[in-house]
Structure formats: structure tokens, C-alpha cells
Specification:
The chain is an all-beta fold and 134 residues long. It has no helices and eleven strands. InterPro entries: CENP-V-like (IPR052355), CENP-V/GFA (IPR006913), Mss4-like_sf (IPR011057).
């Protein structure tokens, strides 16, 4: 099932759409030094379309420089990134998707980015994050 979703940064300077080819079945987190500070859903790279504000996007690369992380230069919100493990896919910040909150997912898998396969590690699932509303 493919669903086209609308998304934007906090201030609305960057507006984009993405096609979720598997709905929200691949929402994940990562425990690497950078990703553990945010969350994403994985989509094919060609399915992310910046509608407005491409000039407002700022790119950040670290460590090996393989993954490109994009942020709004106005409000600082992470919008999406090109995945290091598979550059043909982007991680899209679920909190940017209209009508979606990271708290909508009771259980989210955490990828073992600390032991990334491209660094000689095994990767896989490091654990799970659970959210239980009060």
C-alpha cells in the first residue's frame, strides 16, 4: 500500500511530500550518535519531493560523510536524510508529517547504528522504544 503524505518543518519554510510504500510499518529509530536524537520512517529517495523551500534546506554530514541529513535553515527542524545503509532510501522525520506524532507509535524498533554493518558491525535491532500514554 502506497500513501502520499504531506510534510513540513516547524515554521513552514520547507514543505515536502513523501510516498510511504509500506505505510508506517518501517518506522524506526537508530542508536548511533546522531540518529538517537531523532526518529524517522524509511521511504524510497525518489519518493521525497520538496515542494517549497529547497533553498532553505541545510545539509549536514558527519563521520564517513556518506549520509546527507537535511534541516530547515530557519527553524532548525530535521526534515529527512539519505540513509548510509542504503542511499536509495531516505529517512523522513515522522514528526514533520501532517497529522502524525512520534507518540502515535506504541513500539518502535531501534536499529543498531553504533555497530553499523559498513563499519564492520552486525547491525540489526538493538532494542525497542515503547510509549504508553498515561
Amino acid at each position: 500500500m502506497s500513501d502520499k503524505v504531506s510534510a513540513q518543518c516547524h515554521c513552514g519554510s520547507v514543505v515536502f511530500s513523501a510516498v510511504l510504500t509500506d505505510g508506517y510499518n518501517n518506522v524506526l529509530r537508530c542508536n548511533c550518535s546522531f540518529c538517537r536524537m531523532r526518529g524517522a520512517v524509511v521511504v524510497p529517495a525518489q519518493e521525497v519531493d520538496v515542494i517549497k523551500g529547497k533553498d532553505k534546506l541545510t545539509e549536514y554530514r558527519f563521520n564517513t560523510g556518506e549520509a546527507a541529513h537535511y534541516f530547515c535553515s530557519v527553524c532548525g527542524i530535521y526534515t529527512f536524510h539519505q540513509r548510509r545503509s542504503n542511499p536509495e532510501f531516505y529517512g523522513v522525520n515522522v514528526a514533520c508529517i501532517e497529522g502524525v506524532s512520534p507518540f502515535d507509535f506504541p513500539v518502535v524498533s531501534v536499529s543498531d547504528g553504533i555497530n553499523h554493518p559498513k563499519d564492520g558491525g552486525k547491525g540489526g535491532v538493538a532494542g525497542y522504544i515503547r510509549y504508553e500514554p498515561k
